[in-house]
Write a structure and sequence with these properties.
InterPro entries: YdcZ. This protein is an all-alpha fold. It has helices spanning about 5-35, 35-60, 65-70, 80-95, 100-120, 130-150. The protein is built from 6 helices and no strands.
Length: about 150
């Protein structure tokens, strides 16, 4: 794939946030139609898998060999499990909480664990120490999540 300019790189996570929030609402509706959070998550992942397969074919991506596949460390395959947990947990929550409430909590959880991963350089991420400024940002985000969820 061609290299993205720094401006696009900054925009991609923002657009990803829009996509995942929209996905929550759509998957909540899918759950109502199929009457099952697990079936809704399965359908969502199935459609995503088909789209990715089509993109791989259209962009002529080289597929890994059998040896490359069996050489993958099991923990590196957890992304699919974590994605399934995330999507299913959102599908289960979206009918009881508002989308804003859910994603205030999601973002607070994401930033909290991200600071921990960064500080210690865990799971292969670049080490970036926690500072008072970053901790203040986390505190304000948690306060924001609390205020958004306060009735």
């Amino acid at each position: 794939m061609q290299q993205l300019t720094p401006n696009w790189i900054i925009l991609l996570p923002f657009l990803g946030g829009i996509a995942v929030t929209t996905q929550a609402a759509v998957n909540g509706q899918l759950r109502e139609q199929v009457q099952s959070p697990l079936v809704a998550a399965f359908i969502s992942f199935g459609v995503g898998t088909l789209v990715l397969g089509l993109l791989i074919l259209l962009t002529k991506q080289q597929l890994p060999t059998y040896q490359q596949l069996v050489g993958i460390s099991p923990h590196k395959l957890m992304g699919g499990v974590l994605g399934a947990f995330f999507v299913t947990s959102i599908i289960l929550s979206v009918q009881r909480l508002s989308v804003a409430n859910i994603f205030a909590l999601v973002v607070a959880g994401q930033l909290g664990i991200a600071l921990l991963y960064d500080h210690f350089g865990m799971i292969g991420v670049r080490q970036s120490p926690v500072t008072l400024t970053r901790l203040a940002g986390l505190a304000f985000l948690i306060l924001g999540a609390y205020l958004i969820n306060k009735k």
